Amino acid sequence: MERAYKKSFDKKSTVVYYSFTMEQTLSYVIVTPYTIAKSRTGGVIARLLSRADLEFVGVQMIVPDEDFVHDYAESLRESQKQNINSAGELLAGYVERKLSPSGGRRHRFLLLVFRGEDACKKLSDICGALFPKDYAAPIYGTTIRDTYADFIVDDKDHNKIVYFEPAILTPRKQELADRNMEIFVRHIKNIDNIVQNISYPDPLKIEQTLVIIKPDNWYHASTKPGNIIDMFSRAGLRIVGTKVFHFSLNQAMDFYGPVESALKERVAPIFGQKAREFLESNFNFSFGDEAGNIIAECFGREYAREQFRKIVEYMSGRRPDTCKPGDEEKPGEVKCMILIYEGEGAVKKIRDVLGPTDPLKAPDGTVRREFGHSVMENTAHASDSVESCEREKKIVRINENPMVSIMEEYLNGLKR
To answer: Domains of the chain, with CATH numbers?
Structure first.
């Protein structure tokens, strides 16, 4: 039975749910631990977002246990037996070697989920073939695997693989994608969204900081989100959590509450005075101190309020003064991506790469100088202190990730 696609919202959990037409499917890409360790995550994401005619609906950093790895590897093996995947055994062996815990530590991989027509094939085409012989022409770096993967065979025995690193994992057929997403849902449904898989020599020096890749990066298909992540990799920090996020009106107002106070304190007096000077100049009239101060104060206050409303609208897609009653807790239509970085001096390192609030005043080589448009649309946010990070993580409910719910909704639809 055909199902119409639409978005719906859960007010309590602020999760965006999707339903699908028969043509709308989900598929995934796994960024391998090796690719993450080499700080190539941003480059992979940039290509996926800019080249696929698909909607990016979910992302999560995962540290799989042995049961997860076993079930995923066995699914790949079974796919080869059923002629779904000719490289099932090779990939299963890779998953067991590289995704399994080793040395007493689990290893991170990044799971990205996309929605759209023929999602599996589109992602597979962008990711590229596993084997050099699958290429009809010389390798020019047009796919992700062209650039980041390695498949090296023995000079004398071409059937003997010397080194294999696929860079990313993605299914070539939708049947396998659906089967593997069932495994993912089962194993990651109840895990934390912030991973903990490493012990630091001096834990007291370790900080976390929260980064938001803001809505202006998602208005159209673009490399910008991936390029921003790539720039942040210069900080030498680890990504330990991430998710796709839609601010509700109330969450945006709470998150940017400190900005509202700053606008009233710093911006209102400046623009209030400018308004007074403008009126006096254009009407060739000088206010007395009492009347002039009242005009400046009233205008400045209203100007600051309006700027705050615009910030909230930019981040949530809704204005506080026009939002319909009952919609304040609903996730907004505009998209963000949230990342948690971890390491020594994380707050300062990330803010140094980000640059100051005004892109025009940001140094060359910073994120905001490269991608920001204005003080408001300045492309990304980063916590200004450890304390701010903790406050912000609570507001965006960082340990809740809607990705599993989206996969569940899709898989349940297949059974109907």
So the answer is: 6-193+400-415 (3.30.70.141), 198-222+231-238+335-393 (3.30.70.141), 251-316 (no CATH)
